[in-house]
Amino acid sequence: MSEERKLTEAIVSELSRSLIEIAWHFGPKGLRGECCDDLTMPEFIALEKVSMTPDCPVQVVGHPLGFTKSGATRIVNRLARKGLIDKVKSPQDARICCVVITEKGERILRSANSRYMQKFKELLAKVPPETVPEVMKTVTVMARSLKR
């Protein structure tokens, strides 16, 4: 194997381990159960999508997760059982089931976002200040690339 190929594999391996570490620490479980009302990461992402989408159709909930309509329905049902969203009929088409976030769901998102912001501040305080813009740019570019 060429030296360049080994270097690339080593870089990809290190990047992969680093991203897993970050995902673990910033996921609901990484916050030691201190927020998120015991939500799974897919539930948290779905709840956030509902909060940003007025009269959100059920299948739209699954888009950021790459879920089918039935997968989205399962997540919606779990969130509804937890009292975090309500199911309503679409104002435009009564055949379409939409979901809206409840006050309890809003409280959980506010709490989680507050904790995530605090954790990011603590993390960035450990990063050399001159590298913060580069870190922000790199993470943002990678996140946007995932959405393509």
Structure characterization notes:
It contains six helices and three strands; from the N terminus they run ααβααββαα. It has helices at residues 3-26, 41-52, 58-62, 69-81, 103-125, 132-146, and strands spanning 56-57, 85-89, 97-101. A three-stranded antiparallel sheet has the order 1-3-2. β2 (85-89) and β3 (97-101) form a beta hairpin. α2 packs across α4. The mean pLDDT is 86.
Question: Which key terms come to mind for this protein?
Answer:
mainly alpha, elongated, 148 residues, three-stranded antiparallel beta sheet, Arc Repressor Mutant, subunit A
Strand content: 5-15%
Structural class: mainly alpha
Percent in helix: 55-70%
Strand count, sense and barrel status of the largest sheet are: 3 strands, antiparallel
CATH top level label of the domain at 35-123? Mainly Alpha
Mean pLDDT: 86
Overall strand count: 3
Count, helices: 6
Gyration radius, to the nearest Å? 19 Å
Relevant CATH superfamily of the domain at 35-123: Winged helix-like DNA-binding domain superfamily/Winged helix DNA-binding domain
- The helix-strand sequence is HHEHHEEHH
Strands of the biggest beta sheet: in what spatial order? Answer: 1-3-2
Low-pLDDT regions? none
Question: What does this entry show, briefly?
Answer:
With 148 residues, the chain is mainly alpha-helical.
